[in-house]
User: What shape does this take?
Amino acid sequence: MDTVKRLQERFDGKIRNISLHSDKRIYVDIDKDDLIEFVKFVFIDLDARFITASGIDLLDNMEILYHFSMDRSDVVVSLRTLLDRENPEIESIVPVVKGASNIEREMYELLGIKFKNHPDLKRFLTDDSLDVVYPLRKDAKRQVKQ
Amino acid sequence: MKKVVVPLGPYHPLFEEPEYFELYCDGELVVDVEWKAGYNHRGIEKISESKHWDQVTFLIERICGICSTSHPIAYCNAVEDLLKMDIPERAKYIRSIIGELERIHSHLLWAGLAGHFLGYNTVFMWAWKYREPILDIMEMITGNRNHYAMMKIGGVRRDIENEDIPIMKKILDELKPKLEMLTNAVLDDPVLAARLKGVGVLTKQNIKDYGALGPIARASGVDIDVRRDSPHAAYDLVEWDVVLCQEGDVFSKAVVRLGECFESIKIIEQCLDRLTKIKGEISFEVREIPPGEGIGHYEAPRGECFHYVRSDGTSRPFRHKIRAPSYANIPTFKASCVGQTISDVTIILAGVDPCYCCTERAITVYDASTKKKLFNGKDLILLSQEKTKKIKKQLGFKDV
Amino acid sequence: MALDLKTKALKKSLSVFHLSTGSCNNCDIEILDCLTPRFDIERFGMTLAGSIKHADVLLVTGIVTVKNLSRIKVLYQQMPKPGFVVAIGGCACTGGIFRDGYQMAGPLDRVIPVDVYIPGCPPKPEAMIAGIVKLLEKIK
Assistant: This one.
């Protein structure tokens, strides 16, 4: 519960909501403009390990969850950000977390989320021969080849 | 500066994604590495959204043939986290037994292939020979050599019969002296020490930057192990230690992996002992999955497997995010390969253990300016094997 | 005539090349397992080749992914003829559990002609050896 307290002390007012699924699973809803600040705090000050990020298509919104793990206490902190589905764009966290590069490239190609200031934002898993645009979106359809 | 581009792959079935590396070399030295993935990308996360919660365990078993029980355990942990449920005690022990058997066979597989890349085919044959009894146990208790289909939300699918336990113990007892012999032979060998020590070093900061996991992190002195930190299955009910090294080179990775085999045997033996005394169910019934989200992780042989599931109350996952350990481990090449010679690259790649299961990879070395072929895959392995011979000579060994 | 002589010579020493086109790599491990002491496929005169240009048999595992599609065609063209293609595992034979995925471009026999199918997930090494022996009979 230490983690929740420290987060609340540091970001009083910036946290939209904290939901505790259990003692060890903390979901923090944040504004997408505050992302870098939060990531810096969790990754550097709380010394958490970056696990991964999962992008989700909610049909009316896009959601990204950034999962961080406090290994010795087995707490997983997930930072939840909501993006506009028509034009999903968010700040890249690669300048803070080097290891996030590939997962952001993956979200870029599978969900169509753009990451600002990513050093090398290009396709990672698929190439032009794939006939589905953004396959992980819920309304993805195979296109008829010309 | 004239740079030579050395493509490694893409027919190189490492883990979920067979990978394609481009090594940028200046003379013998590697100056940069680029990882191009996706040749094995099958879109499992999308297929998972079209399967029933129970069917997903069979699908994610087929993410990786070597970790084919780690992903289901992590997935079941995630769904059980969503449901906030516990599993029967007997199921806990069975989960640990299957997980640890898999760890032994995976680490032996790695030791064999690492030996092959260094030109020590004896190690390759030995390690793979000693791996077979483990697969026999698996076939006996689950019905298949790989893809065991043992995990289920709320418990396990099949029980381990009491009659099988003495046979399993006998096989493990016979395996122990062989493993010791293999470990001593590998770790005491002066040639291997010369080839592996100080090669491909990863510092603690590298591990933190790339989020590396498992034996790679533990070889660099980063003390993480999901089995201990996040008690699930039977790992908090039995005695065992986390194997830790400080140097961070390929040699330490070998020490950690071989050491873990012995810890695994220790865990399995204790679990088998307890299993004879516990009676009861092996799974609780799960009727429906309410809306919500869950996170589960498990320490696979290569590091932490991470699964995130979200339910919208229907019979299928709304979203299923999978992060396999090699996804975080492979980018560490950028730190460990740069500044090394080409002949060391194969063993550094092997050191990360990205599921080396293909010895005849399509590796070709092209000269960047002329596009003329310089080496192919066989030559690269030969290059590595020749270096071992050279070191042998320097150390005063007779060439065999 | 010359082709007949070649196939006759093939029977005694098959050189196989192994290609994964989007598998879970369990089949690949079982192929390697065939080389190790318990199964020892070399007693039938078979060896793994380092390059497709030195091989008589192409062992293919896994669904054919969209990204691999063009590459596998090139590899098939590079194989010296007469050559044989063996589809190993459920994925290469039918697409298996991945058949509905967006990356699926196979199964293999829609892309290149296949001579022998070895089903199973994964097929046991014994099954693979039996399959190759059937291939040898077919060559006769």
Observations:
- Helices of chain C lie at 2-10, 26-33, 69-78, 89-94, 125-139.
- The two ends of chain C are 14 Å apart (CA to CA).
- Chain C touches chain B at residues 17-30, 32-33, 36-38, 48-52, 61-63, 65, 67-68, 71, 96-98, 100-104, 121-122, 124 (CB under 8 Å).
